[in-house]
Amino acid sequence: MSENGNGLPRRRAAISDLGEALRLLVEHATATEAPTEEILRAAERIRQAAAPLGDRVRGRFDTASADDLLGGVRLYNPVTGTGSAFAPPLKIHREGDVAIGVCTLGRAFEGPPSFAHGGVSAMLLDQILGYAVTVSGHPGMTVQLDTGYRAPVPLYTPLRLTASVTAVDGRRITATGTITTADEPTMLLVEATGVFVALRAEQAQRLFGPVIGRSG
Ligand SMILES: CCCCCCCCCCCCCCCC(=O)SCCNC(=O)CCNC(=O)[C@H](O)C(C)(C)COP(=O)(O)OP(=O)(O)OC[C@H]1O[C@@H](n2cnc3c(N)ncnc32)[C@H](O)[C@@H]1OP(=O)(O)O
């Protein structure tokens, strides 16, 4: 399915609206103490609502019609995608050479009680490090991600992430990043160093050839 003209902005807005509804559902479903019968009724209604969406789906190697890979539009990215049920979503922008991210994590991201799962922090950092690496003009794939957990990351608290490239060594790009709360940006919660590798042409073709061949 492809849409152009006014159809594409409307479709992207609709996908983001669905994503927001799904995130509300995930948040309520994760936090609910509703009666068991209400949970059973909700499960049935949700299955009914999901069915028509499954009538027309894209294949594994098909890019979403609303996405723009080269333009950086990925509505279903699990970290930043506004159409994703799983994404916080993390919102990233640039301030000079530094990437800044903001998000708030709900109950679905819980690890230790009332705090974020450590893997979620690593996921957020991988994404913002990858963003910093991409906008620096040296895009690559993560080959190593080292995370240091200094203090637990609180749920339901606005968070601030930063990332910047610290070294470019041939095809290897190193970036470092942090997570703090928005209110206390000097109190480090999690830090990370990521190593990214720029793909050789044959690696890009081997890994993404089927996707590149079908998009556009
Ligand atoms: C329009 C604007 C839009 C802007 C907005 C866009 C925003 C857009 C944001 C996207 C943000 C996504 C952020 C998520 C990023 C993932 O999550 S990527 C997914 C996770 N990563 C992977 O799946 C990668 C898996 N690894 C691989 O497939 C292979 O390792 C690779 C990457 C193809 C590289 O192949 P390889 O054979 O391992 O490495 P090779 O090519 O032989 O060597 C490359 C170099 O890297 C080195 N290297 C390899 N592994 C390591 C390691 N672990 N540590 C250190 N060095 C290493 C090698 O030693 C070698 O160095 P040199 O000898 O050249 O000095």
By CATH reckoning, the class of the domain at 91-205 would read Alpha Beta
- Might you state the CATH topology name of the domain at 91-205? Thiol Ester Dehydrase, Chain A
| Bound chemical compounds | Palmitoyl-CoA
> From the 3D coordinates, which CATH architecture of the domain at 91-205 would you assign?
Roll
Please, how many helices? 4
Strand content: 15-25%
- The N- to C-terminal Cα distance equals 12 Å
* Widest sheet: strand ordering: 1-2-4-5-6-3
Q: From the structure provided, what is the oligomeric state, counting identical versus distinct chains?
A: single chain
Average pLDDT number: 95
- Round the Cα radius of gyration to an integer and report it: 19 Å
Q: Total number of β-strand segments?
A: 6
Kindly state the percentage of residues in helix.
Answer: 25-40%
User: Major sheet, described briefly?
Assistant: 6 strands, antiparallel
Shape: globular
Low-confidence sequence ranges:
none
Can you identify the CATH superfamily of the domain at 91-205?
A: Hotdog Thioesterase
What is the N-to-C succession of helices and strands? Answer: HHEEHEEEEH
Protein name: Acyl-coenzyme A thioesterase THEM4
EC number: 3.1.2.2
Keywords: Apoptosis, Cell membrane, Cell projection, Cytoplasm, Fatty acid metabolism, Hydrolase, Lipid metabolism, Membrane, Transit peptide
Catalytic activity: (5Z,8Z,11Z,14Z)-eicosatetraenoyl-CoA + H2O = (5Z,8Z,11Z,14Z)-eicosatetraenoate + CoA + H(+); decanoyl-CoA + H2O = decanoate + CoA + H(+); octanoyl-CoA + H2O = octanoate + CoA + H(+); tetradecanoyl-CoA + H2O = tetradecanoate + CoA + H(+)
